[in-house]
Amino acid sequence: MKRLASMVLVIAAIFSVLTACSSNTSGAKDKDDNKLVIGIDDSFAPLGFRDKDNKIVGFDIDYANAAAKKMGVDVKIQPIEWKTKESELSSGRIDLIWNGYTITDERKKKVLFTKPYLKNAQVVVTLADSKVTKLADLDGKVVGLQAQSSAADALDSNPIKSKIKEATEFSDNVMALNDLKSGRLDAVVIDEVVIDYYMTKEKGTFKVLDESLAPEEYGVGVKKGNEALLNKLQKALDEMNEDGTALEISKKWFGEDKVVK
């Protein structure tokens, strides 16, 4: 009889623990529903990068936080491997791709996009004293770029791709620029807004060719099927354009209005 009573107590205790766990899980989910996890490349200055104190800052970081405030949600900035961005989004590990994410027809097959919010172009950068002055001069040269980026798409679509000696991929732009400075590369294909930032930090080190590879626009990537989040986010972005918030953030990081209206 005592053994039966003990078993009843044990079963009751286990049921109580499971119920509590279920309740806590539900509570955590409710909390997560009020937080946007944003996937970024944390070395993509000036859009999203780590400052001297290792804090993640940048234009897109300020932009995302301002939009989230209007949406009434919190933000978690999640550094990711940029080449895995779409799989991170589709798996649900992140809610948005927001860090200089170029809108392309190929990507539209994988994600939903907001309207463009920033203009950009893929350009070719070399060292200031390089003899490379035009795209044709890349014939027989070694060119670097970020893997799984729109820089790769821009280079692939240009006739010069068939003439370069080698295209070397890097996990981020910083590594590519370091190899350029060390002489292991002859040029780097990179976002115009990114190299403009580095040229202000390292004056006299780089030069950008006059011929750009491809104009483009940035948008925010949302998981396919989540039109509700897309619409809510777009509404917040539109409000930021209307009330001057977008202009204020643009002037902070670029010194001028670069936002697409």
What does this protein look like?
- Residues 223-250 form a coiled coil.
- Residues 1-28 form the signal peptide.
- This protein is an alpha/beta fold.
- It folds into two domains: 34-117 and 219-254, D-Maltodextrin-Binding Protein, domain 2 (3-Layer(aba) Sandwich), CATH 3.40.190; 120-216, Periplasmic binding protein-like II (D-Maltodextrin-Binding Protein, domain 2, 3-Layer(aba) Sandwich), CATH 3.40.190.
- The protein has nine helices and 14 strands.
- The strands form three sheets. Strands 8, 9, 10, 11, 12 and 13 form a six-stranded mixed beta sheet that branches.
- The longest helix has 31 residues, at 2-32.
- The chain is globular.
Could you write a compact summary of the structure shown?
With about 260 residues, the protein is of the alpha/beta class. The chain is built from nine helices and 14 strands.
Task: Count the DSSP helices.
Answer: 9
The CATH class of the largest domain is Alpha Beta
- Helical residues, percent: 40-55%
How far apart the termini lie comes to 77 Å
How many domains, in number, for the residues? 2
Beta-strand portion reads 15-25%
Q: Name the average pLDDT.
A: 89
| Helix/strand order | HEEEEHEHEHEEEHEHEHEEEHH
Largest sheet: 6 strands, mixed
Shape, principal axes of CA atoms: globular
* Low-confidence sequence ranges: 1-31
Radius of gyration: 23 Å
By CATH, the topology of the largest domain is D-Maltodextrin-Binding Protein, domain 2
Question: How many distinct beta strands?
Answer: 14
Write out the CATH superfamily name of the largest domain: Periplasmic binding protein-like II
Structural class label = alpha/beta
